[in-house]
TrEMBL record:
GO terms for molecular function: lyase activity; poly(U)-specific exoribonuclease activity, producing 3' uridine cyclic phosphate ends. GO terms for cellular component: nucleus. The keyword Nucleus applies. This is U6 snRNA phosphodiesterase. The active site is at residues 132, 221. Its EC number is 3.1.4.-. It holds the Pfam family HVSL. The keyword Ion transport does not apply. Residues 1-36 are annotated as: Disordered. Phosphodiesterase responsible for the U6 snRNA 3' end processing. Acts as an exoribonuclease (RNase) responsible for trimming the poly(U) tract of the last nucleotides in the pre-U6 snRNA molecule, leading to the formation of mature U6 snRNA. GO terms for biological process: U6 snRNA 3'-end processing. Keywords: Hydrolase, Lyase, Nuclease, Nucleus. Belongs to the 2H phosphoesterase superfamily. USB1 family.
Length: 282
């Protein structure tokens, strides 16, 4: 799925921002782009064909104008949700979607309401893809800067220790122009210190290439669903109510919603992927 959106930044995907205040706006050019082919995600033994699911026709907005010789740069930690965790998350998403039916799956733009009757399909479409924790802004990089960018990132980040990333909190984010609201899982404890150090290292490399640094108070997260407009108050209230119900049913406060192993750092430039550091899966 990442390969389908590598050449442009999509405001219907992860906002890469803090919720309040929103990130600064860049000069934008609205360019309608076709949605990715959801048939590529078709899971075996599903009772519903993905080709039959409705896809919202939304205008995707480039975060910077296309310029010949420029390539979109994105440095991030890939995150995959363990299969053992997906069922619980899918159940929670179903309950929130019943209260906020305008939610869509990030990247594929499929309304979550169309997936409620097939939980296996919901898990696959919404939770079975690669997520990312951004370590730097998505910015344009000149072709002559590519080699030095990759080389410096590797020098700064190649020696990383394995650690666990705990997503402890559901958080609601709004993009800079208030056209999208995002339902996200935020890192607020385990892994936060390590991620912030990695962000600082990326900032140093960006600065040497005259690129804008990341936000001063970064809030690492992955975004799971989105809705049109700024519905942050409503969505936050519904999410908090459902979390309270979950706590009441379990009889204890959930320490971590999702735990993922840090697997490495990737740098995508245009359509090409560069491994900055990577651990072998155990």
């Amino acid at each position: 799925m990442e390969a389908l959106i590598a050449s442009y930044a999509d405001d219907s995907s992860d906002p890469e921002s803090n919720p309040t205040p929103p990130q600064p706006s860049a000069s934008r050019t609205v360019a309608p782009l076709p949605p990715p082919p959801v048939s590529l995600l078709h899971p075996p033994n599903s009772l519903v064909s993905l080709d039959s699911l409705p896809i919202s026709q939304v205008n995707r907005v480039r975060s910077f104008p296309h310029v010949e010789g420029n390539y979109a740069l994105h440095v991030y930690i890939p995150v995959h949700i363990p299969s053992a965790t997906r069922k619980e998350l899918a159940t929670f998403l179903k309950k929130v979607t019943a209260l906020v039916p305008t939610l869509h799956a990030v990247d594929v733009d499929v309304p979550l309401s169309s997936l409620l009757k097939d939980e296996a399909l919901l898990e696959k479409v919404v939770l079975g893809r690669e997520f990312h924790i951004s370590l730097g802004r998505t910015v344009p990089l000149r072709v002559h800067q590519i080699n030095s960018m990759v080389s410096m990132l590797r020098q700064k980040l190649q020696f990383q220790r394995r650690y666990l990333i705990d997503f402890n909190k559901w958080e609601i984010f709004v993009n800079d122009d208030s056209t999208r609201t995002f339902m996200s899982l935020e890192v607020v404890a385990g892994g936060l210190a390590q991620i912030r150090k990695q962000i600082q290292a990326v900032n140093e490399v960006y600065k040497l290439h005259n690129l804008p640094e990341f936000y001063k108070d970064p809030r690492p997260h992955i975004s799971v669903a989105w809705a049109l407009g700024d519905i942050s108050d409503t969505l936050k209230r519904m999410v908090e109510e459902e979390m309270k119900k979950c706590t009441a049913r379990s009889g204890s406060q959930q320490k971590s919603i999702l735990t993922s192993k840090f697997s490495g750092i990737l740098c995508k430039i245009g359509n090409k992927m560069h491994e900055i550091c990577k651990f072998q899966e155990e």
